[in-house]
Amino acid sequence: MESKPPSSSPSQNDVPAATPEDIVMTPVRFQALDGLELGGALFTPPGGGEPAVVALLATGGGIDFIRYHHFLEYLAANGIPAFGFDYRGIGASRPATLRNFHAGFEDWSEFDCGGAIAMLQRRFPRSAIAGIGHSIGGLLLAGAPNAAMLRRVIFVCPHSGYCGDYLPKWRLLMTLVWHVLAPGIARMVGYFPARLFRLGNDLPARVTMQWGSRTTPELNTDVQGDPDGRFAAVFRRTTSFAGPAMIVVMPNDGFATEAGIQRLLASMPRLDSVRMPMIAAGTDPRIQGHWGFFRRRARQACWSMALDYIKGS
User: Fold this and answer.
1) CA 33, 178, 249 angle in degrees (round to 5)?
2) Residue 10 lies in a domain
3) Domains held by the chain: number
4) Is 69 exposed, middle or buried (0-12, 13-18, 19+ CB in 10 A)?
5) 57 near 132, Cβ under 8 Å?
6) Is residue 12 part of a domain?
């Protein structure tokens, strides 16, 4: 199955090894670490051979991977096979019904991110794996039990989901939506029908309740309890997550503010991180904010730096 978005003209310093039209997008079904089948896709350049590096994308909470396809195709066009997947309950990993479907952040991190890392290890046994986490996806990646297999990571607009870190103009609205409306509806119907409110993908009830409980700065709160300790274990694993990391900061991000980024990085004290403010993006308001990095217009302003970092240059 081929993905053929409109092509764009690369700059002289950003010439891909292949064009977007050459990239092959192969749907992949794989097992999470607990055996649940999940869906995703591998974006590969034409030709074979074992690549030096493959990339794994962990999406923002409740965002399906296909929304990132321009960036994944860009990586593949530059010689880096890139894999995107959906957490259980989302997109290609959604069951027939979400009503009372069990899925929490601990499942997304431990089982789903862990399963994606394991799948890439099996498929590319001699390749290094670079992790890319958008928004809350950075925290989920770092909390996977096999996250040490990631050679380096890029956290794009990372934060911990604490509403007190949001910009003031978003704080009240997000508090009402995600800490009042969403949990209340999830309790009544067994999931949160976010699409009905044009708030993205529908969310499993436990994820919704956990997000709604994120009203204090600490990272270990869980409104539904944690009888087997798996929720708390995710955050314990982040404290030992080590290695090089690029932290991408976008202008006018209402959620991954300086306070939010620092709060997340404080939970990963062993990271060897470098900050990369995307100043060039500031001249174009269409590639600012929490989603700006992944817009196709951000290619020349932002993506080449991420590509160089993934390649280790």
Assistant:
1) 75
2) no
3) 1
4) buried
5) yes
6) no
Residue 3 lies in a domain: no
What percentage of residues in the chain have a pLDDT greater than 70?
90
Structural domain including 166 reads 20-311
Distances (CA, A) of 20 to 128, 131, 132, 159, 305: 23, 22, 20, 31, 19
For residue 175, the domain's CATH number is 3.40.50.1820
pLDDT, tens only, 147-160: 999 999 999 999 99
Instruction: State both tokens at 169.
Output: 């103009």
Length of the chain counted residue by residue: 313
The answer, yes or no, to whether residue 219 has pLDDT greater than 80, is no
What's the CA gap between 205 and 185, in Å, rounded?
A: 9
Report the C-alpha gap between 212 and 183 in whole angstroms. 6
DSSP structural state of residue 2: B
**4 located within any domain:** no
What is the Cα–Cα distance from 230 to 235, expressed in whole angstroms?
Answer: 9
Beta strands (DSSP E) in 211-256 are 243-249
Closest by CA to 60, choosing from 149, 156, 127, is 156
Find tokens 């997008």 and name the residue. Answer: 25
Cα–Cα distance for residue pair 176/156, rounded to 1 Å: 26
Q: What was the pLDDT predicted at 11?
A: 41
Q: Is the predicted pLDDT of residue 256 greater than 70, yes or no?
A: yes
Instruction: Pull the structure tokens for residue 261.
Output: 């980024």
The closest alpha carbon to 205, from 224, 226, 228, belongs to: 224
